[in-house]
Amino acid sequence: MIIEEIFGNLTRLETKRLILRKMTLYDAQDMYEYASDPEVAKYVTWDYHRSIDDSISFLKSTIQKYDNKEVSEWGIIYKKSNKFIGTCGYLWWSLAHSRAEIAYTLSRRYWNKGLMTEAVKEVIKYGFEKMVLNRIEARCMVRNIASQRVMEKFGMKSEGIMREVLFAKGFYHDLKVYSLLKKEYRREKN
Ligand SMILES: CC(C)(COP(=O)(O)OP(=O)(O)OC[C@H]1O[C@@H](n2cnc3c(N)ncnc32)[C@H](O)[C@@H]1OP(=O)(O)O)[C@@H](O)C(=O)NCCC(=O)NCCS
After folding, report:
1. Superfamily in which the 3-136 domain is placed by CATH
2. Sign of the C-alpha dihedral computed for residues 50, 77, 186 and 156 taken in this order
3. What are 143-175's pLDDT values in tens digits?
C-alpha cells in the first residue's frame, strides 16, 4: 500500500452523526469560529487563530497536502447542521514500520457528546483496514484529560511520558504516548 494511493483520493467517511471529508477553503469561517477559541488551542502545538487568515492558511496547507497526495486529515461535519466542527486524521505514516500517528480537534460547543470518539473509531478502522497499519499512535499533553479519555475508550495503551519532548508556546511540555496494535484491535472487534 503506498501513501499516494490512499491519500491521493481521501475517502469520505460517515458515522451516525458525522461526515468526514476533505477540507475546502469554504470551511474557513467555521474553522475560525472554533480555532479562535484559546481553550481549544490550550493543549495543542498550534496557537489559536487571531484572524480568519490563520484559518485560511491552515486550510491552504491541508489542501496542498491533498494535492501532493501526502498524509492529511479529514474535516468533520456535523450532519444535523451541515457545519464544519473540527478535524481528525493522521499526521504522519511510517511505511517501513506500518505505523502512523492520529490527531484530532473539535469545536468546544460540541465537546463531551462522544463525537470525537465516533470520528476516531472510523479513523482507526481506516488505519488498520485500508492503510494496513500494525500500530496507531497518539500523543497528548499530560494535562489534556479529554484527549486521554478518547484514547483510552479505544483500549489504547499508555506507554509512558516523554519528558519535555515538545517546545511549544514558550515552554517545554511532557507528552503522554498511547498506542493500539492491530492484534488488539482485532481482539476488540471480535
Ligand atoms: C480532545 C477532544 C477532541 C475530545 O472531543 P470530544 O468529542 O469532547 O470527546 P468525547 O466526548 O468523545 O470523549 C471525551 C471524554 O473525556 C471526558 N472528559 C472531558 N473532559 C474531562 C475532564 N476535564 N476530566 C475528566 N474527563 C473528561 C468526557 O467525559 C468523555 O469521557 P466519557 O465518554 O467517558 O464520559 C476535545 O476536547 C478537543 O477538541 N480539545 C481541544 C483540542 C485537543 O486538545 N485535541 C487533542 C490534542 S492531543
Report:
1. Gcn5-related N-acetyltransferase (GNAT) (3.40.630.30)
2. positive
3. 999 999 999 998 999 999 999 999 999 999 999
